[in-house]
Amino acid sequence: MQRQRSGDGNVATGFRTAGVLLLAAHLAVVGWLTLRPLDVPWITPANVRPMAGIRADLALGWWPATRRIVEDLALLAPLGVLLPLADGRLRAATLLSLARTVAAGVLISLGIELLQTGVPGQVVDVDSLILNTAGVTVTHLAVVPAGRAALRRRLGRRARPAPEGVDQEAAQGLPPRFPRVPIAP
C-alpha cells in the first residue's frame, strides 16, 4: 500500500469533500428526475429483455432511438467521475478503480429501477440499466486516469525536498519508527 505525501493529504481531503457534495447533489437531481410520479394516459409494460426497448425505438426512427440512448447514457455518467472524486484517492489502480466505480454505478442504477416499480407512471427498463452502466464506464475511462495522472504530476512539481536535518520519511508523512524497549522482568 502506498502512502500519500504530506501535501497530498490536504488536496485529497479537498477533492473528497467536493466529490461528496457534488455526488449528493447529482443523486438528488437523478432521484427527482427518475422517481417522480408521471401523469400519463397510458404506460408501456416493463421491459425485462435486454435491448428490446432500443430495438423498438430504432423501429420508430433514428431520432427517438438516439434521444433515448443519449439520455440513458448521460443520466448517471457523472458518477464515473464523482465516485472516484468522493473516494479522494490520487494513487489508485486503474482497473480496481474502474471495477469499484462500475459496480457502484450498477447498484445505483438497479436501485433506481427497483424504486420505479412503486412510482405511478414509471416502469422498469433493463435497457436503462445497461445504458446507465455504459455511461458510467465510458466517463470513468475517459476522465479519471488522465485526471489523476495530471494531478499527480502537478503535485509532484510542487513537492519540495525536506529541509536539512529533517528525516525524509517524517517529511513524507510516514509514521515515526520507535526502537523496541525491553520489558522489565
Task: Provide a descriptive summary of the structure in words.
With 185 residues, the protein is mainly alpha-helical. The chain has one domain. It contains seven helices and no strands. The chain has helices at residues 6-35, 52-60, 62-75, 79-87, 94-115, 126-158, 168-171. Helix 2 (52-60) crosses helix 3, helix 4 crosses helix 5 (94-115) and helix 5 runs antiparallel to helix 6. The radius of gyration is 23 Å and the shape is elongated. 18% of the residues are buried. Mean pLDDT is 85; it is low at 1-6.
Q: Notable features of this structure?
A:
transmembrane, VanZ-like, VanZ family protein, single chain, 7 helices, 185 residues, transmembrane helix, membrane, disordered N terminus
Morphology: elongated
- The Cα radius of gyration reads 23 Å
Q: How can the largest sheet be summarized?
A: none
Distinct helical segment count: 7
Give the uncertain stretches in residue-range form: 1-6
The H/E string reads: HHHHHHH
Short précis:
With 185 residues, the protein is an all-alpha fold. 65% of the residues lie in helices and 0% in strands.
Record the SSE blueprint.
Blueprint: H1 6-35, H2 52-60, H3 62-75, H4 79-87, H5 94-115, H6 126-158, H7 168-171
Helix pairs in contact: 1-4, 2-3, 3-6, 4-5, 4-6, 5-6
InterPro entries: Teicoplanin_resist-assoc, VanZ-like
Organism: Streptomyces fragilis
Protein name: VanZ family protein
